[in-house]
Amino acid sequence: QGVVLMDPSEDPDDILRANRSREKTFVFDMVFDHTATQEEVYVSTTKSLIGGVISGYNATIFAYGPTGTGKTYMMLGTDSEPGTYIRALDELFKGLGATAEEVDYRVSMSYLEIYSEVIRDLLNPSSGFLDLREDSRGSIQIAGITEVSTTNAQEVMHLLMKGNKQRTQEPTAANGASSRSHAVLQVTVTRRSRRKETGEEVRVGKLFMVDLAGSERAAQTQNWGKRMKEGALINRSLLALGNCINPLSEKGGSWAQFVNFRDSKLTRLLKDSLGGNSRTVMIAHISPASSSFEESRMTLIYAYRAKNIKTQV
């Protein structure tokens, strides 16, 4: 469960710096090395949340880390090794199918990206930029987003592949197909019991799966001009996310400090996932390369903080 981070530039024989070592140990709920399969990662991080979504709880899965460490691969996967999106939806439909005699259910999904602080619908890219609105109950809605109802994981896979082709991707020095936007897949499960005596009880569970854009340093990605501005906006929204995680993870919980969810569209959209009624898993990715020591260090600190969040339900 531990990660030990060694500083590649450190000289073991340097006596003056012996007590100033930057070697650090982090402890997490679960750590995977390079041999872990998609299946293993899914079973130990996400599988336990799916039953909750079916019974009406909310769940969120984050992929966080520097650019080029495999976030999109873990979320989307390939045809032979499907990622978390597909495995989670497969499980969801199986679970719903098992209770189909007693309940009517409806599954709807939307897939969007947040690129340079504007929201685009990936299932219908021609709809232009969309607005975030808050409804009377305080939940965040996206005006004009396409919602697709489906009961079949293959159909969803097809839609996701189509949506992913619409994502803003650009080559950088760190990664040939770097995602320049945060992609959010939102699946809503509505269940209504068929028995007469329970009355019209409706349960709604929401599953958010968020593939964040990689945090990046311009020196590593060698970006200039437009790419550089993109990188700055990506880092700004990730900073806003960090600024929400910090007060939430302080002792005293979410009552002690003001949490600024309105800093970025990403944090407004994920308000419930971080501070509200949701079970949230953050999967942090790091690169084993010594050249990305700084990124790995910041990612581990970020994830370590997120681990301490305890929400007030």
UniProtKB/TrEMBL annotation:
GO cellular component annotations, sorted alphabetically?
Answer: microtubule
Q: Which organism is it from?
A: Piprites chloris (Wing-barred manakin)
Q: Which UniProt keywords apply?
A: ATP-binding, Coiled coil, Cytoplasm, Cytoskeleton, Microtubule, Motor protein, Nucleotide-binding
Under SUPFAM superfamilies, the record lists:
P-loop containing nucleoside triphosphate hydrolases
Query: What protein name is recorded for this chain?
Result: Kinesin-like protein
Residue stretches making up the Kinesin motor domain: 1-309
Q: Please list the residues that bind ATP.
A: G65, P66, T67, G68, T69, G70, K71, T72
Q: Name one GO molecular function term.
A: microtubule binding
Compartment annotation:
Cytoplasm, Cytoskeleton
Q: Write down the superkingdom of origin.
A: Eukaryota
Q: What coarse category fits the chief subcellular location reported for this protein?
A: cytoplasm
Give the family from UniProt.
Answer: Belongs to the TRAFAC class myosin-kinesin ATPase superfamily. Kinesin family.
One GO biological-process annotation of the entry reads: microtubule-based movement
- InterPro entries (alphabetical): Kinesin-like_fam, Kinesin_motor_CS, Kinesin_motor_dom, Kinesin_motor_dom_sf, P-loop_NTPase
UniProt cross-references to PANTHER family, sorted A to Z: CENTROMERE PROTEIN E, KINESIN-LIKE PROTEIN
